[in-house]
């Protein structure tokens, strides 16, 4: 039986199923299911982009809040960029494509900020929760991440 002898709609679903099988087979072999795969991601700087002056697309993230401060230590900025921003976004809104898929918490939500204790945030960072993986970070980094989360504009 050749591929051309199959009805067009059936052929579409056959090809779609084959693509899904290849995708899942690749994910099983690669590190895409590993929580440590984010560690290998490099944080890009505007100088590395040809179009550095273009604002980010509104379809991927909201614009920066006017109150955003630049008081993050380099270590926390890098940690946030490599571990947190993939889902929570640069400003903690959970407005990245990955964040929408995973249902990432909106860390700037006033109700979330009020009902979530620092201890709970620390435990979530260290042990994971739901779809969020655990992160093995030094205590002082976890403390500073909690401070950063608390400082996000609401």
Provide the succession of SSEs: HHHHHH
Relative strand content: under 5%
Tertiary shape: elongated
What percent of residues adopt helix (DSSP H or I)? Answer: 40-55%
Strand elements, count: 0
Count helical runs.
Answer: 6
Question: Main β-sheet, in a few words?
Answer: none
| CATH class annotation of the largest domain | Mainly Alpha
User: How many distinct domains?
Assistant: 2
- Provide the CATH superfamily of the largest domain: Cytochrome c-like domain
- Look at the structure and give the mean pLDDT: 77
Instruction: Name the poorly predicted regions.
Output: 65-69
**Secondary-structure class:** mainly alpha
The termini sit apart by 61 Å
What name is given to the CATH topology of the largest domain? Cytochrome Bc1 Complex, Chain D, domain 2
CATH architecture of the largest domain: Orthogonal Bundle
Computed over alpha carbons, the radius of gyration is 20 Å
Q: Topology of this structure?
A:
Layout lengths: L7 H22 L44 H15 L8 H6 L7 H6 L2 H10 L11 H13 L3
Helix pairs in contact: 2-6
Pfam family, one: Cytochrome_CBB3
Protein name: Cytochrome c domain-containing protein
Keywords: Heme, Iron, Metal-binding
